[in-house]
Amino acid sequence: MGALLAVAKRIFATKKLDVCILGLDNSGKTTILEAMCGTLQLKNTVPTIGMNVKQLKSNGVTMKAFDLGGQQRFRSEWLRYAAECDCILYVVDAADERRLPESRYEINRLLEDAGFAQKPILIVANKCDLPHMEPERIIQGLNLDYITDNRWAVVPISAMQRTRIPEVIKWLVGYAHN
Ligand SMILES: Nc1nc2c(ncn2[C@@H]2O[C@H](COP(=O)(O)OP(=O)(O)OP(=O)(O)O)[C@@H](O)[C@H]2O)c(=O)[nH]1
Ligand SMILES: [Mg+2]
């Protein structure tokens, strides 16, 4: 009976994962959060003041996602939340090459912080339904080749069209824990 209970506990136990969604204002963080939770609506999002928090379940993992405001005045808060999360989803507007240097400045600021050491980072190149930069351009523009301590990857997506959202979730839940 005891052994049976232990097996049942193992089968039904849910793993956990806290994810921090960061990136410049207008990059599409809130749209991605809604797409991941299956609650994306056709109406436009509004700029996030403070943050949104949502929970979703996938493959026995309960993921809590913190979508922080990307406007300049909120960015000082990023590190505080990022340090508490298991992994980071960093969103780049792949259709806006003009703001790539600003995005590079912000991701490098995060990577240089000790609280960030070794946290896995998934960089999503969002808005790929529009004319957009290729992942190689984003890797070069954000200086990602110099990342040594963190697991990272770049995935082109369109949150609006829900393209490759399951791939994003799959990558993230790989870092869930008991
Ligand atoms: N074409 C296109 N537009 C998108 C996509 N994702 C988001 N958008 C649009 O980009 C704008 C900004 O999206 P948000 O999700 O609010 O951006 P955010 O990063 O949360 O912005 P802040 O909350 O200000 O930090 C909105 O008009 C969205 O509809 C996408 O995949 N394709
Ligand atoms: Mg937002």
TrEMBL record:
InterPro entries: P-loop_NTPase, Small_GTP-bd, Small_GTPase_ARF/SAR. SUPFAM superfamilies: P-loop containing nucleoside triphosphate hydrolases. It comes from the Eukaryota. Keywords: GTP-binding, Nucleotide-binding. The keyword Transferase does not apply. Pfam families: Arf. The keyword Nucleotide-binding applies. Belongs to the small GTPase superfamily. Arf family. PANTHER family: ADP-RIBOSYLATION FACTOR LIKE PROTEIN, ADP-RIBOSYLATION FACTOR-LIKE PROTEIN 8. This is Arf/Sar family.
